[in-house]
Amino acid sequence: MIKEGNISPTKEEIHEETEVPAPVLEHIEFEKGDNVVYPHHGAGKVIKKESREMFGQKRVYLTIQINHNDMTVMVPSENAAIAGLRRVIDEKTVKKVLAVLRAGTSEMPKNWNRRYKHNRDKIKTGDIYELSEVVRNLAIREHEKGLSTGEKQMYTRTKKILASELMYALDMDEEQAEEHLDGILAKSAEKPAAKPKEKATAAKSNGSKAAAGKAKPKAKAKA
């Protein structure tokens, strides 16, 4: 298996996933013409489904064309679920993803090394909501404080991956999807940050109320 980062554009990549123990996963039968998402690479289309002999074994392979980075990926059909291949999100999920993108930033480590690892681990899950959260958080941080070189590269890559799926889900072309995503992220980044609670004032106010509310001790009854 060719590792991510060492892939040449237009080069055909064959993913056997032979070293990964097969968990109990729902089998999804993909067909030619299906719009699918391959983790860490983005959305594409199944352009072929054919039987081929490779590595001494005859298997049915799916050939997936990922347009945004001009890459072709081959995955054994029987290992598609293990490889993380899934269908493009539906309309209901699109609304949830857009809601995540429009929300405020979530807490991240202050140290950039830890923050990079934190975001990288989220991306590795292959979960669309985790990916959307990373894209949103990096967009807001870039607007407010700027990004390190590594984070800029991560932001560019993850935004491309997310836009590639929105392209299919929203029936747009690549440029339209990227512009749509950029517009949402720009609005999220420009939202004013929530004002911190004035703890000292609140504490003083609460203390005054508590003091005023204390009942005076009752006088003892005379014998």
Word description of this protein:
The protein is α+β, with helices and mostly antiparallel strands. It has two domains: 12-87, Beta Barrel (Thrombin, subunit H); 91-190, Up-down Bundle (Methane Monooxygenase Hydroxylase, Chain G, domain 1). 43% of the residues lie in helices and 17% in strands. The protein contains six helices and six strands. The protein has helices at residues 91-102, 112-124, 128-144, 149-169, 174-190, 199-213, and strands spanning 12-14, 35-38, 42-54, 57-66, 71-76, 86-87. A six-stranded mixed β-sheet has the order 1-5-4-3-2-6. A hairpin with a 3-residue loop joins β2 and β3. α3 (128-144) crosses α4 (149-169). The longest helix has 21 residues, at 149-169. The radius of gyration is 26 Å and the shape is elongated. Residues 1-11, 16-23 and 194-216 have low confidence and may be disordered.
